[in-house]
Amino acid sequence: MATSNDIRKGLCIEYSNDIYKVIEFLHVKPGKGPAFVRTKLKSVTNGKVIDNTFSAGHKIDEVKVITRKYQYLYDDENGFHFMNNEDFSQLYINKEMIENAQFMKAGEEVTIILKEADETPLSAELPQSVYLDVIEADPGVKGNTATNALKNAIVETGARVMVPLFIEPGDKIKVNTEDGSYLERVK
């Protein structure tokens, strides 16, 4: 049994008959009154995000989790299929359990968080950044170079990314998977 002082980003807790993952937290010590922890919790079962405030010292039920690397194989209308590289077992995860799944490509290695008690998947985390080929890009308009002008591009996974004007179809780019932003062109 943990307390609200142990809350950190990525912690999985049991709260109101569901399992939530802490995605943001802030310890607040006001001038008057007791301290508290303001959190943003994401349900690992349905993806719903809620805001909650825990008073200082409040008891929380921590869920023990394990992480494993899995290789992304393919997706269907309901979710994604992954393979454990150690024992080649396959795992299925619902689409709601993965943030920014539009940046996953076949063969990509993903970290999957499993509940330790029965090894049910809770969520999947993509790498911080991925390398993707640009399939289609809007033409760059001459004269827009005075500022950091951006244009739409479609990458090999079908996702739309805003890129600088010099990016052309066939280029390989590095994309931040958290917010979908362009990082750099890769040679």
UniProtKB/TrEMBL annotation:
Pfam families: EFP (PF01132), EFP_N (PF08207), Elong-fact-P_C (PF09285). It comes from the Bacteria. SUPFAM superfamilies: Nucleic acid-binding proteins (SSF50249), Translation proteins SH3-like domain (SSF50104). Pathway: Protein biosynthesis; polypeptide chain elongation. InterPro entries: Elong-fact-P_C, NA-bd_OB-fold, Rib_uL2_dom2, Transl_elong_fac_P/YeiP, Transl_elong_KOW-like, Transl_elong_P/YeiP_cen, Transl_elong_P/YeiP_CS, Transl_elongation_fac_P. One of its GO terms (cellular component) is cytosol. Its main location: cytoplasm. Belongs to the elongation factor P family. NCBIfam families: efp, PRK00529.1. This is Elongation factor P.
